[in-house]
Amino acid sequence: MRTAVFALGLMALTAHAADLTQVVTEKSQIGFVSKQMGVSVDGSFRKFDAQVSVDPAKPEAAKARFEVDIASIDCGSQEADSEVKGKSWFNTALFPKATFVASRIRSLGGGRYEASGPLSIKGISRDTVVPFIVRAEGSGAWFEGNFVLPRTQFKIGEGAWSDTGTVADEVLVKFKLFVSQKK
Amino acid sequence: MTERYNPVTILLHWAVALLIFAAFPIGLYMADLELSPTKLQLFSYHKWLGVTVCFLAAVRLGWRAGHPPPPPIAGMPRWQEVSSVAIHHLLYLFMLIVPITGWLMSSAKGYQTVWFGIIPLPDLVHKNKELGELLEGVHETVAYVLALLIVIHVAAAIKHQFIDKDGLMLRMSLRPEGKTRS
Ligand code: HEM
Ligand code: HEM
Min CA distance, B119 vs chain A (Å)? Predict the structure, then answer.
């Protein structure tokens, strides 16, 4: 992991002038939709960070590592926010961050791409495939997509909460990231 | 023998009564629970029961428009006649207001209501934390007002049954031509 980050650091230094490296967090969003008793409930993360180096004309060659600050979660109510930081959900005291490293990116054609690599949450790491589209805007580009996160595979919601009849296993993670050139 | 309510009115009356007697205690109990799967389930059941009350109450009012209640029983003092009509109207009003405020509150808090987990009801207001908290207080208050009205209503029914022994209860009885025991 450390070497990967180091390699990414080098990548960033040697990146082409055209490469986008700055995730504009104020414009970007990482949200999710969970199903509780059959009802979709929206949530989001207020804080996240990324090391990215991408040429929007050639996203296949991009390198990216994302880090989400789990404690910045907004589930819609204070009660729910404090509950999901607890042991049976994310256990943020022990596992404050979720990370995703896009180690391979392939083009699906038509401006659609697929990033795959390890997604790590709560000390559990699983290879995950994340489809996304790229849309250039001004001096940067939008990277948008969503994927289904099987929460029980990451032990998000243990004990009584592992009952997927109340809170469904499939959580839809949605992201919309604006990446620009370094200022 | 006095005139009875028509069977549809009687059925709706007891269906709504039963649902309220279930929804109210569930509401009280669930509100103080710690967040758990049970709490989420009870919230859903409460909302489903409450929405059913709302729909049945609307059906009831529609039905009542075409089927007026029987005339008051003979020999009842005027003040009782007036107050019973007033309480009945208030009961109808709060049968609608209580679930509607609950529905609005849920929308404002960002939790849509999906009737029996199948039929999604439209969110009548946008997600808005302050409005959600305000409506929570309103829902609680009007629910208590409804409870108070029901207590008065049931107390009056009991008085008619056991003190006046005037057979008023038979007008709303589920048993057709129920045998008078008095
Ligand atoms: C154990 C509980 C209950 C008893 C014994 C009871 C009894 C009765 C009786 C005997 C009547 C007929 C009154 C008359 O002939 O003038 C009546 C009417 C009515 N009850 Fe109840 N009731 C009960 C619960 C409820 C509940 C929970 C509600 C709803 C919130 C309710 C709403 C009404 C309404 C609105 C009427 C007037 C019907 C009309 O004139 O259109 N009752 N009830
Ligand atoms: C006849 C219908 C209803 C009755 C008698 C009723 C009664 C109550 C009562 C007594 C409470 C507890 C208040 C407290 O102590 O805080 C409550 C809470 C609640 N009700 Fe209802 N309710 C009804 C319908 C509905 C409907 C239709 C919905 C939503 C669609 C709803 C949603 C809620 C929610 C979300 C709470 C919990 C508020 C909180 O603590 O966060 N209710 N209700």
Answer: 10
The per-residue pLDDT for A134 is 92
- For the CA atoms of B87, B94, B155, B144, what is the dihedral angle to 10 degrees? -130
- Please report, in tens digits, the pLDDT of each residue of chain A (183 residues total): 455 544 444 444 444 546 889 899 999 999 999 999 989 999 999 999 999 998 888 888 889 999 999 999 999 888 999 999 999 999 999 999 999 999 999 999 888 999 999 999 999 999 999 999 999 998 899 999 999 999 999 999 999 999 999 999 999 999 999 999 876
Nearest protein Cα to ligand 2, atom 17: B27
Q: Do B41 and A37 touch (CB under 8 A)?
A: yes
| Domain with A157 in it | 2-180
pLDDT in tens, B121-132: 999 899 999 999
d(CA A98, CA A45): 11
Residues B167, B181: contact at Cβ < 8 Å? no
Q: How many domains does chain A have?
A: 1
Which two tokens mark A15?
A: 């990146």
**Beta bridge pairs of residue A39:** A36
Give yes or no for A153 touching B (CB within 8 A). no
- Output A16-19 pairs: Cβ under 8 A, ≥24 positions apart: A16/A55, A17/A181, A18/A55, A18/A57, A18/A181, A19/A53, A19/A54, A19/A55, A19/A181
Contacts of residue B129, Cβ cutoff 8 Å, sequence gap at least 6 = B108, B109
CB atoms within 10 A of CB B157: 14
Which domains are assigned to chain B? 7-172 (1.20.950)
List pLDDT tens digits, range B18-53: 999 999 999 999 999 999 999 999 999 999 999 999
Say yes or no: A89 contacts chain B, CB-CB below 8 A.
no
Which chain A residue's Cα is nearest to B45? A37
The residue whose CB lies within 8 Å of the most ligand 1 atoms, and thus the one to mutate among B54, B76, B85, B88, is B88
